[in-house]
Amino acid sequence: MIPLTLHEIALAVGGTVHGAPAPGPTVTGPVVIDARDVTPGALFVAAAGERGDGHDLAARAYAFGACAVLGTRAVEGPCVVVDEIVSALTDLAMFVRDMLDLVVIGVTGSVGKTTTKDLLAQILEREAPTVATAGSDGDEIGLPLTILRADRWTRYLVLEMGAARQGDITHLAWVARPQFGLVLNIGPAHLLTLGGIIGVARAKAELVRALPPAGEGGLAFLNADDAAVASMAGATSAGVVSYGREADASVRADGVTVDGEGRASFILHTPSGAAAVRLGLPGEHQVGNALAAASVADVLGVTTRRIAARLSAAAPRSPNRFQLVERADGITVIDDACHANPVSMRAALRTLATMSAGRRTIAVLGEMTGQAGDAARHHAAVGQLAAELGVAILVVIGTGEGPDALSEAARRAGVATHTLPRRRDAVALLRNMLRPADVVLVKASGEIGLSAVATALWNPRS
């Protein structure tokens, strides 16, 4: 963050300083909400959460070098006391945002936000100092914390913007004021809270509606392959750049092929030229994410050759998103258990199938949450697809309408299916079942916690 005294922070957030005479210590480090992330000069945000009250960790934060605490009550040390933490973080982020000369890029969509954000950051950071959302932390707390990582040298700010309810992205855009808005796709995610697929589209369109007009530099980057996204051109006063595999897209891919490791190659076409790309990230669906990142980079003046080279060299940055571990015994374990909806589940299973090359495939699947009244139908379709793709063994973890429908559909279609209520049961089963050269996919919505299964399988029992 840019250096700010404690009293300057207090003025920005409407808080009261305790434990330090004016102007107070200067925050020169990051703003952090986890005491484990404290470094010298940091501002520790003492938020209350499921794991406890951050105020109780203030002494630890000071011991690790925090120069001040932001909280809702005074602690023993320099601090700013506010009425509400999230509002204070928002105010501080907006204060810092207004002091910096940034190109702010908002990224949203039902699937692929985190990967696209990571790809774009890996292109832009070679051009100028770039700050991007860590992981998928694109909510009302994560977005302000990301903005606060920017300093006077930062040029590009790449922000993931998620939506669980109508108005979420409008709020995030109000805080960040993006000039560019990148919309990836519309799919069945958060159906319960967003009001069906129409509600999902309406929520994602909030980003393009919030952009400045074309005459003021606003640009909406829209997926030409997704009709719902493409139609957002009529919902914004910003300029529009299209990307996708459609022939008339401004940035497009030709000659897409997928190798035996599931990695896609294609010719990238931009208004500036053409160049070959071979992605290191598995899955044909990554082509769309790469094109989305390329469309923004092209407008920012990165040459097509450099974009292609950086896409080809890009590596996974965020955990639990098709994270591969190759065991010494030849077994491949894939952790893709951060998020799941019908679109991402289909993409993951198809990528598993392309990676098989004669190897036995095992899918360890859990519930896709937030599917409202369509849960049984969507889960059954996943079970049917597993059969069509030739998945050898399906392990379904959990109980309820979704997992039950998934198991039943796969079993009826001829897949060897095991249904287990608990994660630890699945680990025991799989450890006894696995044999060299197997490929194992672990996928479910993040709250199901199946990443723990993948982690357990990464290391064979001694």
Description:
There is one protein chain. The chain has about 450 residues and is an alpha/beta fold. Helix content is about 35%, strand content about 25%. It has helices spanning about 5-15, 60-65, 85-100, 115-125, 140-145, 170-175, 190-195, 195-210, 225-230, 285-300, 305-315, 340-355, 375-390, 400-410, 425-435, 450-460, and strands at about 5, 15-20, 25, 30, 45, 50, 50-55, 70, 80, 105-110, 130, 155-160, 180-185, 220-225, 240-245, 250-260, 265-270, 275-280, 325, 330-335, 360-365, 395, 415-420, 440-445. A 9-stranded mixed beta sheet has the order 11-12-10-13-14-15-16-17-18, sandwiched between helices. A 6-stranded mixed beta sheet has the order 19-20-24-21-22-23, with helices on both faces. The longest helix is centred in the N-terminal third of the chain and has 15 residues, at about 85-100.
In helices, the fraction of residues equals: 25-40%
Low-pLDDT parts are none
Envelope shape: globular
The number of strands is 24
Please describe the biggest sheet, giving its number of strands, its sense, and whether it closes into a barrel.
9 strands, mixed
Distance between the termini: 46 Å
Beta-strand residue fraction: 15-25%
Number of helices: 16
User: Which sequence of strands runs across the widest sheet?
Assistant: 11-12-10-13-14-15-16-17-18
Q: Given the helix and strand composition, which structural class is it?
A: alpha/beta
Cα Rg: 23 Å
Could you report the average pLDDT, rounded to the nearest whole number?
95
